[in-house]
Amino acid sequence: MNQIPLKPQNERFTDDQWQAIFDQGDNLLVSASAGSGKTTVLVRRVIEKLKMGFDIDELLIVTFTEAAAREMKERIQEALQEAVNSESDPVRRQHFTKQLVLLPTANISTLHAFCLTVIRRYYYLIDIDPVFRMLTDETETILMKEDVWDELREALYAENDERFFQLTMNFSNDRSDDGLTNLVFSLYEFARANPDPQKWLEQLSDNYRLTEGLAKSRLYQEQIRPLVLADIYQCVQLYEQMTQLAQGEGLEKMHEQVAGEQLQIKNIYEAFSQDRLEEAYASLEQLTFSTFKSSRKAELKEISNEVKGMRDKAKKLIQQISKSYFPVSPSQIEELTEKALPLVEEMTKVTQSFMDGFSMRKREKGVLDFNDLEHLALQILTEKTKDAWLPSEASKHYRKKFKEVMVDEYQDVNQLQEAILYWLREPDDTKGNMFMVGDVKQSIYSFRLADPSLFIGKYENFSKKEGGRRIVLAENFRSRKEVLSFTNLIFEQLMDPAVGQINYDEAAKLIQGFSDFPENEQFEPEIMIYEKEQEESEIEIPTDDILEDKTEGELFMTGLKIRQLIDSSFMIYDKKSKKSRPIEYKDIVLLTPTKKNNLTILEIFKTLDIPLEMNDAQNYFQATEIRTMISLLQLIDNPYQDIPLAAVLRSPVVGLIEPELASIRLADRAHTYYDAVFAYQASNEDELAAKLEHFGKQLDHWRELARRSSITDLLWDIYYETGYLEYVVGLPAGAQRQANLYALVDRAKAYEQSSFRGLYQFVRFIEKMQEKDKDLAEPVISIEDNAVRVMTIHASKGLEFPVVFLLDMTKEFNLQDLRNRYAFEEKLGAGIRYMDPETRVLYDTLPFQAIKLAKQNKLLSEEMRKLYVGLTRAEQKLFIVGSYKNKEQMIQTWSEAADHEELVFDPALRLKGRSSLMNWIGYGLIRHPEMQKYLEEEVSTSLLQDSNAQFSISWMNQQTIIEQRQLLAEKELVNLDEQMKEKETVLADSLQKRLAYEYPYQASSQTTSYQSVSEIKRLFEDPDDTQESRLTLESSQTKAASRQFRYTQEQLAEPKFLQKDRQVSAAAVGTATHALLQLLPLEMPTTESINQKLQELVKKRLIDEKVAKKVDVSSIIWFFQTELGQQLIANKENVKREQPFSMLLSADEVFQDYPNQEDELLIHGIVDGYLEEKDHLHIYDFKTDFILHPDDPAEIDAIVQKYQGQLRLYQQAMTEALNKPVENVFLILLRVKRIININK
Q1: Is residue 337 pLDDT above 70, yes or no?
Q2: Fewer beta carbons within 10 angstroms: which end of the chain, N or C?
Q3: Out of the domains of life, which is the source (predicted)?
C-alpha cells in the first residue's frame, strides 16, 4: 500500500473516497453503494493520476455504456480545464493542456469499442478483412441466423441421422421444430459468453457420464446434496421442537405420533448424509402422515396449534424433497441421465455446426456482431500453445502501455470480458494495476450474461488481502434518511449469500451522507395497495367507470396520488437552489418492471390530465397507420393472405365497410379472400366492383414496383397514390402519425443498407421483430419539459429522482426460463429434460435438476437486486404500488414471515417461485413495530425493535377511486368557474374594445402584396368580383370603399385522397394542352408525334391518362399550319416559351378607387410565348375556353374582354423586361381555331 496524502480538513470527500482516489500499488475493488459518488471518485482518481505525470492515453477506462463514457470524458475535460486555469507552474500547465489535446482519442469507452480499436489495429494477426460493417440491428442478426439454420437443418434432415431425429423429437412438438431452433440459438448465445465457446460445448456431456453412480457425481455432491440435507435437517429440528412441546398430561397421543415420525425423519437424514440414496428414497416413499392427533382440551389448544403448524411445515419440506430432487428413484435418475447422453452429444455437435456456419456467413457478408468483437480481440491478445495460453505481442504492447486499467460497473462483467481484461492488465497481483468500481447489489443484467460472481469472488478475497484490496463506499449522498432506513430495513432481512449472493451486513448498509434535507414527517415511504375484490356496494358503478383489471386500478390510484401531490403543492428540497419548492411533474418518475403496461399508463394518465414523457411506449407496431402499411406490404408480397387483405380493404386506403366485406366473402366461400375479390368483380358491376377494380390496378402496379425498385421507393409511391400521408394528419395526434410513417421509410432505408434485400425479407424482418416482442421506438416529435417520466427499473440504473413510484410490485416473478426443456449455467453446463420416445413423458435429468435449482436462485437473486435498484433511485419520497385481493389476503401473505426467529429469512421463503417484490417487502415489514397498527394479531417485533425506519400503508378499491375521480372533477369545475367569474368583467371589456376597433389600413391588410396575373385577370372580366364574401366588417372605411382588394377562392380543391373518379375538367384539359405546347419541338407536328409526346407526359405523371385522351390534337396541328405557327417554326431560335416574369405596380394601377395610393403590388405570371425580332416583340397566349357560338361576334368580344387585361399586363411586363415594344399580342382560341390580335 502506498502512502496516501493527508486529507485536508475542508475536503468534501469521505475517508473511504479519499483512499479510493489515491490508493495504488495493488488491484483495488471499490464496492460503491447506491448514491455513493463512484463516478466523482473515478474522475478525481484520473485527474490525480494526470497530476502525477501520467498521460491520459496511458490509462484504459472501461465503462458499461457509451453514455457513461461520454459523461466521463466531459467530466475529465471540465476538471482539466479547471486545472489549466488554476495552475501557475508553466510545465504543469503545459502537461494539462497536452491531456486536453489527447482526451478525444483517449481510451475511455465501452469494452466493445476498445475491442474494435484492437481489431482495427491488429486485424492482420487473425486474418480478417479490415473492411467490415458492424451488425448492430438485432433483427438483421436474427434473419441471418435463421437463414444459416434453415440451410443446416435441411442438410441434417437429408442425412437421415437417427440421433438428429431423436434430438428434434425431444425438443419439439407435433406442430413444428421451433423448440429445437430455440435450443440451438440459446445454447449458441450462452456458449459465446465464454472465453472458449468450443471447449465449453465439448465439456457439456461430461455431467451425463455417471461412471461412479449418482451419489458420487460432482453435480449431486456439489448442488443437490447440500440442499437435500439442509431441508431434511430442518425437518429434524422441527420434530425435536415438536417432541419437546408435546409432553405432559393430555398430549400423550400427540407425542407418540410426532415421536414415531421423528424416528423416520432421522433415519432418512442419516441415509442421505451417508449417500445411501436408494434407501433414503424408499424411506421417503414409505413415509406417511396420518391425521394429526390434537388435544381436545381448551387449555392445550395453543400447544396443539403450534405443533400442528410445525408438522405442516415439515410435511411441505418432505414433499419438496420428493418433488424437486427425487421425483423418481436414484437408479431411474441415473438411467435417464445416461439415456440423455447421446442427445447432449448431438445437441453439442449441431450447435457447433451452426456456430461455424454463422461465423462463415458473417465473414462472407463482411459483418461482425458485438460478441465477435470480444472474441476476435481475445484472439489477438493471446497465443495458444500445447499446454497453455500466453500473451501475444499485442497483449504485451497494451500491458506496457496502460499504467492502470479502470473498470466501471464491474459487477456487470462476464467471463469473456474478464478474460480480455486479464490480458490487458499487469498479471502479477503484487504489482496490481486494476481499479474496479461497482456494486454487486445492483447487478441486474443477467440477460446480457453478466456474472456477478466475479465481483463477489474479489470482494471476499480482497477483504483478506488476497490478490488485492477492497474499499467500501457506504455513504449515500442522494437520498433522505427515510428512504435509506426503509431500504436497509428490507434488505437486512432479505439479502445474504444464499439469496442475493452477498451479505447485507454493516459494510453494505446505506449511510446518509447528505444532511441538508430539512426535517419533515411527510417523507416516510408509502405502500399503496389496490384491493381487487371489494364488498358489495349499494352504489351503482357506471359501466364506463368499471376498472378492467388490477393494472388499471393501480394506475388510477397512482395518478390520483400524483394529482394530489401537485394540487397540494407538496414541498420538496431543491439541491441546486438549496431551498424547498413545490413539486412539479418533472420531479416524478414511474419505474416499472417491464414495458408491457406503457400503453395503459399513457391512456389512464391522459384521462387524469397528467403529462407524460415516455420515450419507448412500445406501441409503434400497434399504431393504426403502421399496422395498415405493414398489412399492405404483406399483401404486395403475397396477396393470398386473408387477414392483411381484409385489413387493407377495411382501411382508408380502400375504405370498404363491413357489409361490403361480407358481400365479397359470399361471392366465393370456398377459396381465399383474394379469389373472392375476383369472383365479386366478375359477377357485379356496382360501385363496390369499381372500387375493387381500382384497388386491383394499384396492387398490380405496386407488386411490379416492388420487383424492380427499392422498398423506400415503394413506400413513397404508396403514400403518393393513396394520399395516406396527408390523410393521417387529419386524425387525432396527426403529427405523430405522420412522423411514424416517415419513420417507416427511414427503417426501410436502413434495412436496405444491411445484408438483406427485397420486400419478402423486409416483411419477414418486421414479423420477426413482432414475434420477438421487439418494437421500434416511436419517433418523438416533442417532449414536454414538465412531465412525469416513465421508464423500466433497468433503464433507471445510475439515475436519481426526487419522487419515485415503483409500479406493479405484486407482479409474480417471471420464471418462464425454468419451464423450458433445457437450462444452462456457466459452471454447471447444460441440463436437458429427457422425453421417453414411447410414452412421450418428460423427465428431469440430474444436470437439469442441478442447473434449474441454481438458476432459480440466480433469477430470484437478481429480482432482489432489481428491487434494491428501484428503492435507491428515490431522493426524497418513495411510493410502492401493488395489489392484492383484499387487505386480509395481503396480511395473510405477509404473515408467512411473522414467526421467523432469525433476522434473515429462510432461503425457502425467499425462493418461493410464486411470489413478488411486494411480498418480499411485506415480509420485511411484518415484524416491524410500525406494522402492528395494521394487524389484528400481535407479532413479535423484538428483532426490529431498534429500527428507525418509518412507513405507511394505504388501501384503495374501485369505489374509492371512482369517488376520488369525481371529487377531482368537481374541484376542477369549481376552480374553472371561479376563474371564469374573476375574468368575466375584464374579458367583456377587452372583447368590446377589440370588436369596436377600426384598423386604419383595412384595405391594405385585405389585399395581398403578391398577386398572380391569373388572379388579377378576374378583375378585368368582372369588376364586381373583387368583393370578398368571407369577411364582413362594419367600419366606415370599408363601407365607403365598395370593394375589398383581395382575391380568394371560395372553395379549395379537394385533396387527392378524397377525390373519387369524376369527369375530366376543362381546366385540367387546358393545363395539359399548355404543357404539351410547351414541350413539343418547334417543327411541323403529326398526329402520331403529338400522341407519342402525350404518352411520355402520362408516363412521367405530368398529366393524367384520362386528361390526355381529351386533348384536342387536331387544334394543335391547325395552329402550326397557320401563318403565326409557321412563323414560329421558321424563327424557333428566337422563340421563348413559358417565360416567367415579376413586375412591381402601384396598387391603384390595378384596382380602381384603391384608398392607399402609396401601396405597391408584386405581380407575377408566365407568358405562353413570344417571338423576339430585332426591334420589337410578338406575344402569343393559348386559350382552350369553350365557345358555344363561335360565329357570334358578341361571344368573341366577351372572350377578348375576359383576357384583355391579363394580356395588357403581359405586354407591359415584356416591354419593361426586354426594353422593346410589343407589336402584336395574339390571343389563340384553340377550341374554335381562331387567332385574334388584340393590338389591331
Answers
A1: yes
A2: C
A3: Bacteria
Extended beta strands in 158-203, E state? none
Distance CA 362, CA 355 (A): 11
Binding-site entries for ATP? 32-39
Fold of domain 138-193+335-365? Enzyme I; Chain A, domain 2 (1.10.274)
pLDDT higher at 510 or 912: 510
Half-sphere exposure of 811 (CA within 13 A, CB side): 19
Q: Are 923 and 866 in contact (CB under 8 A)?
A: no
Taking residue 481's Cβ as centre, other Cβ atoms within 10 Å add up to 19
Q: Which three cell numbers stand for residue 947?
A: 429500527
Q: Cell digits for 1036?
A: 366606415
Take residue 839 and report the three cell numbers written for it: 410414452
DSSP 411: G
C-alpha span between 438 and 409 (Å, rounded) = 4
Are 774 and 139 in contact by the 8 Å Cβ rule? The answer is yes
- Alpha carbon distance 288, 277 (integer Å): 19
Measured distance CA(561)–CA(810) in Å, rounded: 19
Residues 736-765 pLDDT 10s: 788 889 888 988 887 887 767 788 888 887
String of DSSP letters for 192-239: HTSSSHHHHHHTGGGGG--TT-STTSHHIIIIIHHHHHHHHHHHHHHH
Give the integer Cα–Cα distance in Å for 1028 and 1222.
34
Query: What does DSSP assign to residue 1056?
Result: G
Beta-strand pair 788-792/1222-1229: unpaired
Q: Which residues, including other chains, have CB under 8 Å from residue 328's CB and lie 6 or more apart?
A: 336, 843
- Write down the residue that cell numbers 430432487 correspond to: 325
- Rounded to whole angstroms, how far apart are CA atoms 650 and 656? 5
Q: Single out the residue of 1055, 1041, 1073, 1103 nearest to residue 1228, CA to CA.
A: 1073
Which one is predicted more confidently, 281 or 997? 281
Q: Output the pTM of the full model.
A: 0.74
Mean pLDDT across the chain: 87
Q: Residue 165 and residue 157: Cα distance in Å, rounded?
A: 8
**Closest alpha carbon to 234 in 292, 313, 306:** 313
pLDDT 10s digits, 634-647: 999 999 999 999 99
Give the separation between CA 55 and CA 46, rounded to whole angstroms: 10
Contact between residue 532 and residue 883 where contact means Cβ atoms under 8 Å apart:
yes
Instruction: Show Cβ contacts of residue 15 under 8 Å, excluding neighbours closer than 6 positions.
Output: 7
**Alpha-helical runs (H) found in 246-300:** 252-273, 277-286
Report which residue type is found at 350: V
Q: How far apart are CA 550 and CA 531, in angstroms?
A: 8
Cβ neighbours, 10 Å, residue 609: 10
Burial letters 482-498, b for 16+ CB under 10 A, else e: bbbbbbbbbbbbbbbeb
- Which CATH topology does 521-534+542-615+786-956 take? Rossmann fold (3.40.50)
pLDDT at residue 1152, rounded to an integer: 56
Q: Distance between CA 1084 and CA 1093 in Å, rounded?
A: 14
User: What type of residue is 738?
Assistant: Q
Helix (H) / strand (E) element for 423: namely none
Instruction: Give φ, ψ of 369 to 5 degrees.
Output: -100, 175
Q: Are strands 1010-1012 and 1135-1146 parallel, antiparallel or unpaired?
A: unpaired
Q: Which CATH number fits domain 16-109+388-474: 3.40.50.1370, 3.30.70.1070, 3.40.630.10, 3.40.50.300?
A: 3.40.50.300
3-state secondary structure 864-906: HHHHHHHHCCEEEEEEEEEEECCHHHHHHHHHHHCCCCCCCCC
The CATH class given to the 624-771 domain equals mainly alpha
* SS (HEC) of 646-672: HHHHHCCCCCCCHHHHHHHHHHCCCCC
Q: How many CA atoms lie within 13 A of 192 on its CB side?
A: 22
- In this predicted structure, the answer to whether residue 659 has a pLDDT above a threshold of 80 is yes
- Given a cut of 70, whether residue 1041 has pLDDT beyond it is no
* Residue 175, pLDDT above cutoff 60: yes
